[in-house]
Hints:
It is a single chain. By secondary structure, the protein is mainly α. It folds into four domains: 9-86 and 248-319, 3-Layer(aba) Sandwich (Rossmann fold), CATH 3.40.50.620; 89-245, 3-Layer(aba) Sandwich (Rossmann fold); 333-393; 411-499, Arc Repressor Mutant, subunit A (Orthogonal Bundle). Helices cover 45% and strands 9% of the residues. The protein has a three-stranded antiparallel beta sheet with strand order 3-4-7. The protein has a two-stranded parallel ribbon with strand order 1-2. Helix 9 crosses helix 11. The chain is elongated, with a radius of gyration of 32 Å. The mean pLDDT is 96. The structure holds glutamic acid. Residues 13-15, 47, 199, 203, 215, 217, 221 line the site of glutamic acid. The site of glutamic acid has 9 residues, from helix 6 and strand 8.
Amino acid sequence: MTNPTSPVRVRYAPSPTGIPHIGNIRTALFCWVIAQQTNGQFIVRIEDTDRSRYDSDAEKAIFESLQWLGLDFDEGPGKGGLHGPYVQSQRQATYVKAAEKLVESGHAYYDDTTPEQLHALRERQKAAKQPPRYDGRGRHRSPEEIEESRQAGLPITIRLKVPDHGKIAFEDSVRGKITFELKELDDFVILKSDQMPTYHLAHVLDDASMGVTHVIRGDEWISSTPRHLLIHQALGITPPKYVHVPLILGNDKAKLSKRHGATSALEYRDMGFLPDAVFNFICLLGWSPGDDTEVMARKDIINRFSIDRINDSPATFDAEKLEWMNGVYIRNMNTDDLICALLPFMEKPESDGGLPDSVTRPIDRVYLKQLIPLVQERLKLLTEGTETLDFFFKENVDPSAEELPGKKMGAAMTIQALEAALALCKTSSPFEPEFLESEYRALAEKIQMKPGQLFSPIRVAITGKKFAPPLFDTMSALGQDRCITRMEKAILTLKLSIIA
Ligand code: GLU
């Protein structure tokens, strides 16, 4: 199938039963992209008919994930639209009416089989090594018997009559023609005893009444599609086009799950990923533009996306690639945008990964702007801003006597290096990176040390870390006074360690 040329109407229809995972959000993202591309509409519909599993936090997380990724929708809860309400529990009457109409037209029937009877049936089938399936006994119940059961308070469902032979087929936009044997299906419930529809009935009715043209969803729904086609047939409506997107696997080729690490978009947000990078990355889970391009701006993805190029084999979630991609996006940001992205992480309480609580908030933005060029190249996550830059904001750093020496340096040699460095620091002017570098290189030669031997203790003394941004930029940004104080303190620490 080539890409739709006329405007599509596509929907993201999550069930608020858990925090939406990456695979789930990917369907939202594909829907959003194809809606933008064709100038169509992206609809959000909350499928909350399973009231026992309803979770309000999950519902909140759904909208937060959409908002964070910039997947704005045209119709949906809180947004309105001509086909609302967009929450299934508010559409119950429609489903009941449709199910009853299917009974009237002979396509469905009331069933008073109790859960205990269904359980006993399954046990018998299990013992006989038969696949568990409903045996259609309700087809033979008379209206009087059903009424009697109703009066007796037994649970009454409505089931669709499935022909016991023949085939049903559909053309999947990703996998091509898929055919099912009807004898494999049993008469399934469309209206539960609590008068709530099953997913099968509800989504078919909603998709039809909302004018959905393409159903984009995970391929775990393929096996249910024949049921959906039968409901369409019974209702006399034309099914939409089906686009079943492939499963997402972890690096070990097992289905992506919690044990692979973070699985929800919001976790990635909290870990310091940028929404644009995550958007780009998710888009490539099961789709590729047909060449090796990986880093693509949103507008390029919209231009290049095509259903044709959705893969029919599983996609692999490569967390390292996502981190790499985030680094690319960070490098490509302008300084002001990066500051805006970093600040919320740096200004969190210390216990949440922010700068020490002793650092006053709000953080000095002008100073931060001066520091960005020192670290932008190296950042992969926004959360790393705190750790990479903390020593610029802290009053003091406190490296231990063991941390200060460079490779193959004892305490005495380290003191010698730092004392020479301190003396030079007091007189160096201008305190600019290039000048400092030439001065300190000359100093190393003068005191007959390798540059690395001189620079390493200085780095630890002024930053408290073995790895830090380029030394002379760092010294310059810290300023002469703080460099002096920190080197003095480091020398003292070393001297005390010798005495002790
Ligand atoms: N409510 C279903 C889900 O959350 C929707 C499946 C579909 O898109 O048809 O998976």
